[in-house]
Design goal:
The structure holds two protein chains of two kinds.
Chain A lengths: L8 H17 L4 E11 L4 E12 L17 H10 L1 E10 L4 H4 L9 E8 L6 H16 L11 E2 L22 E6 L6 H9 L15 H6 L2 E12 L7 E14 H4 L7 E2 H5 L12 E7 L9 E4 L4 E7 L2 E9 H4 L9 E4 L13 E8 L5 E10 L5 E9 L3 E12 L2 E2 L3 E5 L8 E9 L3 E11 L15 E3 L3 E6 L26 E6 L3 E3 L8 H25 L13 H17 L1 H9 L1 H23 L1
Parallel strand pairs in A: 1-10
Antiparallel strand pairs in A: 1-2, 2-8, 3-4, 3-7, 4-6, 5-6, 7-8, 9-14, 10-13, 11-14, 12-13, 15-16, 16-22, 17-21, 17-24, 18-19, 18-22, 20-21, 23-26, 24-25
Helix pairs in contact in A: 2-4, 11-13
Chain B lengths: L1 H12 L2 H12 L8 H5 L6 E10 L5 E4 L2 H15 L5 E10 L8 E2 L4 E3 L4 H4 L16 E7 L8 E3 L11 E4 L3 E5 L8 E4 L3 E4 L2 H16 L10 H33 L7 H23 L2 H8 L13 H38 L1
Parallel strand pairs in B: 1-3, 1-6, 2-11, 5-7, 6-9
Antiparallel strand pairs in B: 4-5, 8-9, 10-11
Helix pairs in contact in B: 2-7, 4-6, 7-8, 7-9, 8-9
Chain lengths: 613, 351
Amino acid sequence: MAPSAGYTSIPAFLCLIFVWATTASGTPKDIFTEELFIKPLSRGYVYSHFQFTTKWNASIHDSNTFRHYRLFPKALGEVLAKYGVQELHLSQTQGLWRHKFWGYPVHDAPPGAELWVWFKPTVKDIDRAWTELVNAVSGLFCSSLNFLDSKNTVVPQWSYRPQGTAAPGYSTFSYHVRYGALPREIVCTENLTPWKKLLPCDSKAGLSTLFNAFHFHDASYHSLGLHIRPVCADVDCTEEAIELSQSLSVVTDVISTSHTGTPNWSLRSLFGNHLASTCPVAAKSTIFVELTKNEDSHMYRLTPDPSSTEKVTRGPDQHTYAVYDVQSLMKSGRVLNIAATFRDPPVLLSVEPPPIHVHRYITGYGLDKGGISCLIYNNMVVNQSIIYLDVLPWFTRVFFNSLTVTNNGTRLPFKVHYVPGKDRSRPHQLELSFNLWPHSVTQVSFTFTRAFLKWTEYPPDANHGFYIDSATITAILATSRGYTATPQHSSCLESIMTDNSSRFPVRLHTESLLVSLPTPDFSMPYNVICLACTVVAIAFGSVHNLTTRRFEKLDPSAKKGILTKVKGFLSKLRSKKASPEKQTNNASHPEDTDTSDNQNELKNENSSAKSSS
Amino acid sequence: SLSHQIVQLVKDATRDAAVVKSFEAAKGLRSQRPDKDIMRSYRFHPSYDITFTLIVPEPQNVNVEWDIEAGTRDYLQPLLDSLLEYTSISVTSQVLYLVSLGGKPKKGDNFYYYTEQDLPHIINPLETKLGSHASNSPALNFIVGIPTQDRSPLYILDSNGEKLPSNAFLSPRWGGILIYNAEQDNATISSSPAQSIQVNMHRVMEVFVSQIRLLLNIHAQMVTKELKWEIAGWLRCRCVENLATATSTLQSLAQLLEEIGNIVISDEIGKEVESAVASIKNSRQLLASGKLREAFQTAFFHPSLLELLYFPEDQKFAIYIPLFLPISIPIVMSIMQAVKWFKQQKKAKSE
């Protein structure tokens, strides 16, 4: 936009000033927003979702980007730069999200840890990059993600598509994606602390001061999420940006954990603290409360009054949100404690099943064979096509010919991508795509046989069993009933207010399963050693003593040592107990007494030898 | 005499004393006295990570900007470029909010100060945020700390009670910390509701570049300020250091193998040992003939950590005892009795 010289000099001068003014004020390199989303669920549960989004106006493909950091955490940026990561999605969850009662969360996560990564096209050896990345991320978050090796990593063909911007044709053949999950992984404060450290304000100011480890680990469900993806910097999409979204979701059972047994909740009762500060480097700090079935406050009333109430139409459904602009509400140093008071007697939200929900379980009995069945419920009046991904470890050997997809007895056609597993190197991967009929239950089932592992491959608690990863169901819904996720272009919850999309992608994770394998008795080596050694010692000792016993005459007048005195006393006791008559007989035959005494003393020698062995 | 002076001059120019010191330190001789130079500087490594951190404890009160990219480009890049052949140095920077310098500064006339004893405590609260999960290179951390508004201005006093002109200190083999007082350091300040500070990069970088030199053991030449001569002197030190480290590592490895007989050594390590010995011989020859650069390359090669994978003697003992002890006791006793009997027989015979 070089200004033309000549008679347009004055407007050109103004133009120049305008350009200078904008560059002098500086386009912000990165923007940080913190948001909290609270949604009351049915039966007195409350879903709270913290969302911390950093949007950095830099390109992830540029090698100079990851050198100078401001709000984006340096520890994370170095890992991304070194291993050529384009998208990274990590979730660590404790508990199971119950879709049937709670609807859909903002980010769905399976129990345990899950990591899936799209690498840049410039990365040559993706398996090696995956191994090194997994080790670096496990160090960064203090979790054992380094166990994600080839035995539990797969390349999903149709699920887990890139969520950010990418070059056209990038994801066609799925060369660059890796997915792995560890259902056994436990989430505790050890994982919360390094996750908190990545926030610009740590937990010293802003919404992160509400983090209270005690309350979180008491909750029915809590999940830490970290999502990095390239996005468009603005609506025109002329520039690239990197978006880091850190999320913490908690579902609290308010009725059970409150002292009064009422479903009233507040920031104080949910998190142990009211909000006393905002993060100084945050551009925006907002709290959203979803009021969808309660627009007229007939169930509960919110205090203080929200800054604004937004009615949003997403697809065919309408949602209402109460918006609190925290920065303006806390301007004069006040504290903020949002509370919901239910009327007396309380009326709770009714359970409304979401469009799709799933239930997966193990079938069969014994330690030889088994089966997996997955029931997928479709509560809509239209067909819905879904993609089903299931990853089974190599030791549950799947019979592919037993795979059926049925709906009330009728077999459905399906498209399948199946990669059979290889012992000790590759898991079984099953990806199906089929249609769900309206108002029906579809069942996916197959059988497997259990392998016998080598004795070093059992975990320390072998009889606990082995975990099977959650299955993933991906679908694009036309309705937003129970839907809380943000639109595709931004992870900020604020973008929900201006959402005009008509398609809502959703991902569901099922339960993770626990399967018992034939387990040997690990105490056997110890038992065998004990038994064998005892038998050998006793048998050998006795036989040896019998064969090498020599009788020698003892001199009764010789001085007796203490040992022989004790032995003599003991033998006298024994003979007294055994036969009082014999003693009288012995008394009349003194020579016999001698030999019997000798015999007793010899016996004692041998028995003491035995006891010492 | 003149020849004597010339020799002395050349020795200074080539940093002879420093070379000898490096050699002895790398060999690990215990008899040497602790030396500041050796204790302060990093050992040689093919790559280093330099991180510049800006600490802003109260972002709600001050709005700090620093153009670190331009600063490193203008002040640090010449040094890094000249070292590019021998070691790769990566430079990163970050800003940490709501973190403050540790320790408790004391109150002076109308300023606050740290004494020499307080300095080790300053680094503690920062350590958790420094460090990299993605690289193993030794890290040099340089920190610019903005004091909080109620503890400002903040100075460091030396042992005489005088304010340090640079207001910075160096931590051996770790990095350096500079406390930046906005009013005194020619920062451009504008007082809107939040005080806005633009950090003066010249002031900050001149301190840090000199600290980097000390930490990497690149000394300014007394005779001339030529960068090339500095690099040559540094190369000499490093070369000698690598040679000494390699020979001492090999010696200790040989000693270890002698002591523990049944260690399992993988073939890789064996190959590395052989190549290390070859490199040492090669670089010695090159040094003698004056080819500094090649000698440097080959001298840096020493065996990596060893995996101890052997069956300890005492464990073997513990496994076999439950089986052999019960068997051996009667046998031993019988043997003793048999010996006694033989002795008796001998006695009887001799009588």
